[in-house]
Specification:
Blueprint: H1 2-18, H2 28-39, H3 45-61, H4 65-77, H5 84-100, H6 104-121, H7 124-140, H8 144-160, H9 164-180, H10 184-201, H11 204-221, H12 224-241, H13 244-261, H14 264-281, H15 284-300, H16 304-445, H17 452-483, E1 491-494, H18 495-505, H19 507-513, E2 516-521, E3 526-529, H20 531-547, E4 554-560, E5 567-573, H21 607-617, E6 621-627, E7 631-638, H22 656-660, E8 678-682, H23 686-696, E9 701-705, H24 708-717, E10 720-726, H25 734-742, E11 752-756, H26 761-770, E12 774-777, H27 782-801, H28 812-826, H29 835-841, H30 846-857, H31 861-878, H32 885-891, H33 897-908, H34 912-917
Helix pairs in contact: 1-3, 2-3, 3-4, 4-5, 5-6, 6-7, 7-8, 7-9, 8-9, 9-10, 9-11, 10-11, 11-12, 11-13, 12-13, 13-14, 13-15, 14-15, 15-16, 16-17, 17-21, 18-20, 20-21, 24-25, 32-33
């Protein structure tokens, strides 16, 4: 009889494992039945594990990730330490769910753990599969170098296993990473290798993908002939596959190519074919794209009626699709509500049974507990009274000691306040004599009759006056921070650009001191912070590092963001270091080392104190580590909360001129502000070069070169803002140099003046055709040269300020962006909507969507979806459409309200609950 029962249970378990079950049918009843059978010994542990894992896979296939994770938790609770393969399988399934949800960083972590287990088990097939998925994840987040490393490792395993399909897929994806980096030559090399393997393995689907990708890449290069050739190859393979979806994509690619070429007849033909297939397979987005191009073709060819009819069809399709999706969404929400209601009722019944059992146990133990409680209360009362008397006596002693401490603290605060007030008063008093010194010196410097030595001495005085003025300003800034009068003026800017700009401004000073100044920018990030104040901190740290590093030493600036968390800026040197006795006091104001072994280096002890205050104002911290004789390392840590979205193009961009607009080196090596823009002067006559440099040195930092070749080298080495060139020069003349400059997109906008002793009218016409801005005949009037340079430079500055303005014409890209936004809003409440579905909705591959959004907005597809959802949530919260964070989270498609609230606060600075209750 017992054997018959076991046989029936085992038969039921096999049916559960082999028959597909909807995710909605997997509930606590299944868990309970399997668990009871295992506890009673009716089924083995391996059978229970197989049941849980099979149902977890079924839930995953049905996109019900919540139930899949629930089943995996039970699965892992039965695992032992030696169940390595089972642990690896569980982590791999977790990773696949995270990939579907767009959580690529967490997916990489799970994949790495499973990879280590498969490697130890020498499971080559699973090891190869995980390597391929890791490559896909790194490719998705834009880390092409990391992606290529995993793809190459995967290729080695696939080659050993003779798996041509996986090897070809890896080669295709590597080619795609190089194409994304615009290294098309290397990308096409990998594409061709993948084509050879696809042909050998008869993998038509891979061959179609490769041809389609190569067509798009040739189109991006402007090679329309090869783009058409590979587009037709893609169409041919898709026909061999008899895949209507692939054929539709190939038709669409050819139609858009011919539309860009202006071949409207061919474009119309292919778009008609695309529309026909889209209707056949019910792919609404593919049909919408075809109608959009056809509407423009009809309009351009004068067939206005068909254009209008097509436009009405597009609008009707949009409206009907929106209505259908809303109906489906409401049905989905209703179904979820019914399921949750049933689960709650079952949980309540189980809870009632558990309470009934616990009540019986409680009644049996109540008498014993009451006796124990009475005895315990008596003991506690005695202990409390004893403790009260002892505590009262200790409090009296502490109050007496605290009163003494408070008196001492008041005296110390009074002394510190008097000292700070004295420094502030002195700083204010110093401003008047500094002004009276600075004015006459500047007036005397404008006198051209001064001798060279006197002029140099006065410039030294002026520089040190500026250094003293900056020191006064630091004292006043520190005083304002103490009083809480300094506010943070936030703006969005690229932190890495700011760091590189400041480092570039110190390069000339480092060269003078014989110190190697290096920078290492490991990440890029836009932050919302006070740019000027962070600029001061970085200038102070680099200046100190240069001051305490001997000639031949090294100063390095590193910007990193470990695991996408806090921002870290490290300034380290290999100088003399800080004595252990002083390390804890370097951030104290007015502190200076008094050790006899240290050289006198000057300074007031204000800069580091001010820098630490600024770091704490931004919610960060500034710390130091040092080893005497080996150098010091200062680390500025900024919180991850200051990360912001990318600003509009050209906004808040830091330039070297902003940092250098006053970087002056004083006699003691301190760096301050106001450097002039750089002017490149090409003149092989040394006397003439010196004369012109003397005329323009008040307004520009003149960099001289004797030939066009030297001039090109300087253009690549310095941030040149103006060019003056002679025509007759050795090695490369001025005309050839002008052609080189005007043909380069980085330099063609620079103002350019030619100086020549030739009066050849044909030469003048040639120079004007090349794009010369102005030219002067030798001999020239010095005031005329200065005026022309001044006017050209001012015009150049005005052009830069207007550079961000663009035409407001509606383009195909803007229409595509509207389609993507509407696609997200249409699926706003769908918690399973992900990047893959957005790409399908836009009739793009996932890689195409990533490349398009990254170029158009600077966001990844996942960030794009989150930005639209969060913006909509903010609008709904302010309109008070919902009353709780949970309702608002569900309305915009987030499964976890806590995660939604974290993202919302990071984006808008407030939790959603605060806005809902306001």
């Amino acid at each position: 009889m017992f054997k018959n029962v076991l046989l029936v249970l085992y038969t039921m378990l096999l049916w559960i494992l082999t028959c597909p079950v909807d995710a909605a049918q997997v509930d606590s009843t299944f868990i309970k039945s399997v668990d009871e059978a295992y506890q009673k010994g009716e089924i083995s542990r391996d059978s229970a594990l197989e049941a849980y894992y099979s149902q977890a896979l079924t839930a995953f296939d049905n996109y019900d990730f919540g139930i899949s994770r629930w089943l995996l938790d039970y699965y892992e609770s039965l695992l032992a330490e030696n169940d390595s393969i089972e642990q690896a399988n569980s982590k791999l399934l977790y990773a696949q769910m995270l990939m579907e949800e767009g959580e690529r960083a967490d997916a990489i972590e799970y994949l790495s753990e499973s990879l280590s287990i498969y490697k130890s088990l020498k499971d080559s097939s699973k090891y190869m599969l995980v390597l391929l998925k890791l490559g896909h994840n790194y490719n998705y987040i834009g880390d092409h170098i990391g992606a290529r490393e995993y793809y190459n490792d995967c290729i080695e395993i696939a080659h050993e296993l003779n798996n041509l399909v996986v090897e070809g897929s890896c080669l295709y994806n590597i080619g795609g990473t190089y194409a994304d980096d615009e290294n098309y030559e290397k990308g096409f090399d990998f594409y061709n290798r993948a084509i050879a393997l696809a042909n050998e393995s008869l993998d038509k689907e891979l061959l179609h993908k490769i041809y389609h990708a190569m067509s798009l890449d040739y189109k991006n290069q402007g090679n329309y002939e090869l783009a058409e050739d590979f587009g037709r190859r893609s169409l041919s393979v898709s026909r061999e596959m008899k895949s209507k979806r692939a054929i539709g994509f190939s038709y669409q690619g050819l139609g858009m190519l011919f539309f860009d070429l202006g071949n409207l007849d061919s474009s119309e033909y292919y778009m008609d074919q695309t529309l026909s297939i889209a209707n056949e397979i019910s792919n609404h987005q593919l049909g919408f794209n075809a109608k959009e191009i056809l509407e423009q073709i009809y309009y351009k060819t004068g067939n206005y009626k068909r254009a209008y009819d097509t436009y009405k069809q597009m609008m009707k399709q949009e409206d009907s699709l929106y209505t259908l999706q809303n109906t489906q969404l409401l049905a989905s929400i209703k179904e979820k509500y019914q399921n949750e209601k049933q689960e709650r009722e079952l949980a309540e019944k189980n809870l009632q049974l558990q309470e009934a059992d616990s009540n019986l146990i409680r009644q049996r133990n109540t008498q014993l507990i009451l006796v124990f409680v009475v005895v315990l209360l008596i003991l506690i009362t005695i202990l409390i009274y004893r403790g009260y008397t002892l505590r009262q006596r200790a409090n009296d002693i502490l109050q007496s000691k605290n009163a003494e401490i408070q008196e001492h603290l008041k005296e110390i605060e009074h002394v510190n306040a008097n000292k700070s007030r004295w420094f502030v008063n002195v700083a204010h008093e110093l401003r008047t004599p500094l002004t009276l010194i600075k004015g006459p010196i500047q007036r005397i410097l404008r006198n051209s009759k001064l001798s060279t030595n006197v002029h140099a001495d006065l410039q030294l005085v002026e520089r040190n006056t500026k250094s003293l003025s900056n020191l006064v300003n630091e004292i006043l800034d520190l005083s304002k921070m103490e009083e809480g009068e300094v506010s943070v003026k936030e703006s969005v800017f690229e932190l890495g650009d700011m760091i590189m700009t400041v480092v570039a401004a110190f390069e000339s000073r480092a060269d003078q001191l014989g110190i190697q100044l290096k920078s290492q920018i490991n990440t890029e990030a836009h932050i919302l912070a006070d740019k000027d104040k962070l600029n001061k901190v970085l200038i102070n740290l680099i200046s100190n590092a240069l001051k305490f590093t001997s000639s031949g030493g090294t100063v390095e600036v590193i910007f990193a963001r470990p695991k996408n968390r806090t921002f870290r800026i490290i300034v380290k040197d290999n100088g003399r270091g800080i004595p252990p006795a002083d390390i804890n006091r370097v951030f104290d104001r007015f502190f200076q080392s008094s050790r006899d072994s240290q050289e006198v280096t000057g300074g007031t002890g204000i800069g580091l104190a001010l820098s630490k205050e600024i770091a704490e104002m931004h919610g960060g911290q500034l710390s130091v580590t040092s080893t005497p004789g080996m150098g010091s390392s200062f680390t500025l840590v900024l919180p991850e909360e200051i990360e912001a979205s990318r600003p509009p193009f050209g906004a808040n961009k830091t330039t070297v001129e902003e940092v250098e607009s006053g970087l002056v080196v004083s006699s003691d090596g301190i760096i301050n502000v106001d450097r002039k823009p750089k002017l490149l002067l090409l003149e092989d006559n040394e006397d003439m070069a010196s004369y012109i440099a003397s005329l323009l040195s008040d307004h520009f930092e003149v960099k001289a070169a004797k030939s066009g070749i030297m001039g090109l080298e300087m253009l690549g080495s310095y941030d040149i803002k103006f060019i003056i060139s002679d025509i007759m020069m050795p090695e490369m003349d001025g005309v050839t140099f002008l052609k080189k400059v005007k043909s380069d997109p980085l330099w063609r906008h620079l103002p350019f003046i030619h100086l020549t002793a030739l009066s050849d009218e044909n030469l003048k016409k040639e120079l004007l055709q090349i794009g010369i801005d102005d030219f002067l005949m030798k001999p020239f009037d010095q005031e005329e040269l200065i005026i022309r340079v001044h006017n050209l430079y001012n015009n150049y500055i005005q052009r830069i300020s207007l550079d961000g303005e663009s035409k407001q014409e509606v383009s195909h890209d803007e229409k595509m962006m509207n389609i993507l936004k509407k696609e997200v809003l249409t699926h706003l409440e769908d918690t399973n909507f992900n990047v893959l579905r957005l790409a399908d909705g836009a009739a793009m591959s996932e890689r195409q969507l990533y490349r398009y959004l990254k170029a158009a907005t600077g966001l990844t597809p996942l960030q794009f979806i989150q930005e639209i959802k969060l913006t909509k949530a903010n609008d709904l919260a302010r309109k008070k459409v919902y009353s709780s964070t949970s309702e608002l989270s569900s309305a915009v498609g987030f499964k976890q309200p806590a995660y939604f609230a974290t993202l919302f606060e990071k984006r808008f600075g407030k939790k959603p609950a605060v806005i809902l209750k306001a």
